Amino acid sequence: MPILNFGSINIDHVYRLATLPHPGETIAAASLETGLGGKGANQSIAIARAGGTVRHLGAIGPGGGWTRDLLANAGVDVSAVADLDTPTGHAMIMVDNAAENAIVLFKGANHAIAEAQVCAAMDSAAPGDWFLMQNETNASAYAAKLAHDAGLRVAYCAAPFVPEAVREVLPYVELLSVNALEEAQLRAALPDLVPRLDRMTLLVTYGADGAAHISPAGRVEIDAFKVVPVDTTGAGDTFLGYALAGFDAGLPVATALRRAAAASAIQVTRPGAAAAIPLAAEVDAFLAERF
Q: Do residues 204 and 180 lie in contact, with contact meaning Cβ atoms separated by under 8 Å?
């Protein structure tokens, strides 16, 4: 079934540094690369490259048409990507020699999406389809309720973690995707919502320690593949996109997670975010070498 992804589209400016700067410190960058990013765009590309069918719901500003072209070239349906007068969202990403990163986001067109646009895009979805969303767009609570009421399965990537946004969206969520830090933040900031977590499905990533799929039916864990990382930007988005494509295709949870772990392992060995996401054939070859 098709996946409708209500997500951000960013222009990434990636600066390579020896170390991340401390407050008040100025450091010269060794290089600058500009490319497509945003958690939403990354996840749409990951779904498409995993073999899934995905339609992206989002917005870009003047001069941002090349980002939509890259999405389309990756196999993403971009018919629900709007052109607005607001500048395209962008991110300033600093990556150090240990592959750690620090990111500053400008919301731009990602936070100027009209509710009417969301409603129109939802018309093409059918009950049982997945509706994916993150915390990098406006109208998230409206979209989550609309999707839920239409019988869609809402998958929510609660990043960047914003307690108010999570509180508004969580009642409509079937699958909650977080990393270990975000899960801890959620439990600390919203203790009254913790019992709800036990009644839904959680997809939790632990970086080099793997990931877990936790639901009322049980817990499935997967180890991370050991690789030498070059850039960890977008690794979580790659994992979620591949995992959701696997769930949508009806793969067993363990199989879907293993493919997602392999995809993210390949992705972190390459520079960039969206451009580094591997094709399904590359993931198959990677797994064939290890099993």
A: yes
Task: Look up residue 181 and give its two tokens.
Answer: 């830090």
Residue 252, classified by CB atoms within 10 Å of its CB into exposed (0-12), middle (13-18) or buried (19+), is exposed
Inter-axis angle of helices 140-149 and 115-122, to 10 degrees?
Answer: 30
Count CB-CB contacts under 10 A for residue 287: 16
Distance separating alpha carbons of residues 264 and 266, to the nearest angstrom: 5
| Length of the chain, in residues | 291
Burial label, 161 (beta-carbon count in 10 A; 0-12, 13-18, 19+): middle
Domain 3-9+39-87+109-288 has CATH 3.40.1190.20: yes
- Compute, in degrees rounded to 10, the torsion defined by CA atoms 178, 179, 180, 182: -60
169, two tokens: 């969206």
Residues catalogued as catalytic: 237
Strands in the chain per DSSP E:
3-6, 10-16, 31-37, 54-60, 77-83, 89-95, 101-106, 130-133, 153-157, 175-179, 201-205, 211-215, 218-222
179-235 pLDDT tens trace:
999 999 999 999 999 999 988 999 999 999 999 999 999 999 999 999 999 888 899
Dmax (CA) for the chain in angstroms is: 52
What is the pTM (predicted TM-score) of this model?
0.93
Cis peptide bond upstream of 216, omega within 30: no
Instruction: Return phi, psi of residue 283, to 5°.
Output: -65, -40
DSSP per residue over 100-152, as a string? Answer: -EEEEEE-GGGG---HHHHHHHHTT--TT-EEEE-SSSS-HHHHHHHHHHTT-
